[in-house]
From TrEMBL:
A single GO cellular-component term on record: cytosolic large ribosomal subunit
Protein name (Swiss-Prot/TrEMBL): Large ribosomal subunit protein bL25
Biased composition (Polar residues): 1-11
Family: Belongs to the bacterial ribosomal protein bL25 family.
Every Large ribosomal subunit protein bL25 L25 domain range: 6-92
HAMAP family listed in its UniProt record: Ribosomal_bL25 (MF_01336)
Domain of life per record: Bacteria
Record carries keyword Ribonucleoprotein: yes
Keywords in alphabetical order: Ribonucleoprotein, Ribosomal protein, RNA-binding, rRNA-binding
UniProt GO BP: translation
Cited InterPro entries: Rbsml_bL25/Gln-tRNA_synth_N (IPR020056), Ribosomal_bL25/Gln-tRNA_synth (IPR011035), Ribosomal_bL25_short (IPR020055), Ribosomal_L25_dom (IPR029751), Ribosomal_uL5_bac-type (IPR020930)
Assembly: Part of the 50S ribosomal subunit; part of the 5S rRNA/L5/L18/L25 subcomplex. Contacts the 5S rRNA. Binds to the 5S rRNA independently of L5 and L18.
GO molecular function: 5S rRNA binding; structural constituent of ribosome
């Protein structure tokens, strides 16, 4: 199954801006990989909360539509809130 997540490039980086994003229902993330520049991204929490419950989310290639351009990635790491059903940060690697 293929998953598509719309995202935007994130310009403000840091703890304060990440907290503001989470309060607004968004999730900060990063895409990195060997030989490519790391890109800070942000996407809606509702776009990932349901699809990440599927087992093949972590093993299949995902498509992130980043500012109108499709990027193939894989989920590398995900930080979750301690007791709330919330995702706090996601790391992706280029596929």
């Amino acid at each position: 199954m293929s998953y598509t997540i719309p995202a935007q490039t994130r310009t403000e980086i840091g703890k304060g801006s990440s907290r503001r994003l989470r309060r607004d229902g968004k999730v900060p993330g990063v895409i990195y990989g060997a030989g490519k520049e790391a890109v800070a991204i942000v996407f809606e929490h509702k776009d990932i909360i349901n699809i990440q419950t599927n087992e093949d989310f972590y093993t299949s290639d995902l498509t992130i539509v980043l500012d109108g351009k499709e990027v193939k990635v894989r989920a590398q790491a995900m930080q979750r809130h301690v007791f709330k059903p919330m995702i706090e940060h996601v790391d992706f690697v280029y596929a």
